[in-house]
């Protein structure tokens, strides 16, 4: 089973090849690659084959028989994978849930009514529109208890920055302060597609090593692709498209992505959430 070929056939794999849009990940980072795993995980037969492939790789890495598996995935993408892996291992599927924090920001400010403060700041004075926003701040294990003697195995559908996996592991460790003394946490995370560019957290890879002080988690995946990520859309724009020589008319543009695609220097890149804009990304 070639997972990437399957995803491409299902219209579930996107890579930036020029145009206006980039993908905004759950972590908040901007990426040039995204896998819509829902097109595969909604098919029980395909998910079963993928889980079997991961379990075979896990068996090659793990010495001895493990008992009483608790397979943990993060909601939402990791839930069905955790269920199928647990089913095939004869274990129990559990999941962590996002923790949200609400904040507000002001839009449509009428700067004509902004009064200057002596210290150099500004008083908005009631103008503008307050827009509530909800942010994901982590993961929490809320609905399940992990019994003594259990073996915990972590899974995820796609890993890019590793932030979700880090938060998932951290939530299990923090769920009960003594939990790591009474259970076995396997030093692996099974994932369908690894976009992080790493195969092991290791020293200096902040994705997973912080949650378990004694070791990181080795990534066992069915497909590996190195995605480029940026913290902001500005960073992405600088790297991907804009290299203008102001002495030229019109400006000379040098596209620095591997596809050598020329991009209009006046075109503003946008980062969009693939969950709500998949057709936009695929048809750009």
End-to-end gap: 29 Å
In round numbers, the mean pLDDT is 77
Q: Helical residue percent? A: 25-40%
Kindly provide the radius of gyration, computed on alpha-carbon positions and rounded to a whole number of angstroms.
22 Å
Description:
There is one protein chain. This protein has helices at residues 3-9, 38-41, 44-61, 79-89, 163-175, 179-182, 233-240, 274-282, and strands at 13-15, 21-24, 30-31, 33-35, 69-74, 92-107, 115-116, 122-123, 129-140, 151-159, 184-194, 218-224, 229-230, 270-272. It has a six-stranded mixed β-sheet. Strands 13-3-2-14 form a four-stranded mixed β-sheet. A two-stranded antiparallel ribbon has the order 1-4. Among the domains are: 1-32 and 228-284, no CATH class; 102-136, no CATH class. The longest helix has 18 residues, at 44-61. It has 284 residues and is of the alpha/beta class. It is 26% helix and 29% strand. Mean pLDDT is 77; it is low at 114-124, 201-215 and 242-266.
Task: Quickly list its features.
about 280 residues, alpha/beta, four-stranded mixed beta sheet, globular
